[in-house]
From TrEMBL:
It holds the Pfam family Glyoxalase_6. It comes from the Bacteria. Gene3D superfamilies: 2,3-Dihydroxybiphenyl 1,2-Dioxygenase, domain 1. This is Glyoxalase. It comes from Streptomyces lydicus. InterPro entries: Glyas_Bleomycin-R_OHBP_Dase (IPR029068), Glyoxalase_6 (IPR041581), VOC_core (IPR037523). CDD domains: VOC. Residues 6-123 form the VOC domain.
Length: 123
C-alpha cells in the first residue's frame, strides 16, 4: 500500500532567512508560522502549501537568464496577480528588481532581494 504524501512547504535557500521571508510576507500577505534565526515558515491564511526560507552561509544567487558556468536557478515562483503594473510596482517598492530580460509580454520576471527570480502573471 502506498503511504500518504502531502507537500507541506517549499524551502528557499538564501543568505538571510529573516530578510527574504519579510519580503515575501509583505508581498503575499502570508502569516509567519515559525521563526528561528536561520529558518522562517510562511503560510497562506487561506491554506495550502507553505513557503519556508533557510539561511545558507555559502549561498550564491542564480543568474537570469541562465548562463553556462554560472549559478543556475533551481526553481522559481509563479505568482498570480490581477494587475501586472501595480503588482510589479508594489514588489519593487518592497525590494524586488525587474529582470533585464523579459521573455513574455504577459508575464513579468522580477528578482527577489536574494536574487531568486519570480514571475508575476495575470489571473
Amino acid at each position: 500500500m502506498k503511504p500518504r504524501f502531502s507537500l507541506a512547504t517549499v524551502v528557499v535557500d538564501c543568505p538571510d532567512a529573516q530578510a527574504l521571508a519579510g519580503f515575501y510576507q509583505a508581498l503575499l500577505g502570508w502569516e509567519v508560522k515559525l521563526s528561528e534565526a536561520d529558518w522562517v515558515l510562511l503560510r497562506n491564511p487561506e491554506g495550502g502549501t507553505g513557503l519556508s526560507f533557510q539561511s545558507e552561509p555559502d549561498y550564491r544567487p542564480p543568474v537570469w537568464p541562465e548562463l553556462p558556468a554560472e549559478q543556475q536557478k533551481m526553481l522559481h515562483l509563479d505568482i498570480r496577480v490581477d494587475d501586472l503594473d501595480e503588482a510589479e510596482a508594489y514588489a519593487v517598492a518592497l525590494g524586488a528588481v525587474r529582470a533585464a530580460w523579459q521573455p513574455q509580454d504577459d508575464v513579468r520576471v522580477l528578482l527577489a532581494p536574494a536574487g531568486h527570480p519570480f514571475c508575476l502573471f495575470l489571473t
